[in-house]
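Sync notes, pocket subgroup
Present: LS, DG
LS reminded everyone that the earlier model was apo-only. Rerun requested with zinc ion included. Inputs:
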Amino acid sequence: MSELEKEILCQSTDEVICPHCGYSLRDSWDLQDDHGKLECDECGKEFEYYRQNLGVVYSTYKTEKKDETAAYSALKGEKK
Ligand SMILES: [Zn+2]
């Protein structure tokens, strides 16, 4: 039986995402090289990663509870 491949967002992400299963590496910043091969911790498959130096972006928000939720939604790109 074949399972349709899920669409995995692994392009221009802020963490290395396994293109096989979508697993997100927690410590992508710790990778020494801008390009290399990795074995997924989750599914064990090998994949290549590239680190694109598109620029690190920072955002700041006031630490008020309600704003925090709005800011988080904004970060996730929800426009509602
Ligand atoms: Zn995987």
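DG: The radius of gyration is 16 Å.
LS: The CA atoms of residues 23 and 42 lie 6 Å apart.
Action: DG to write up.
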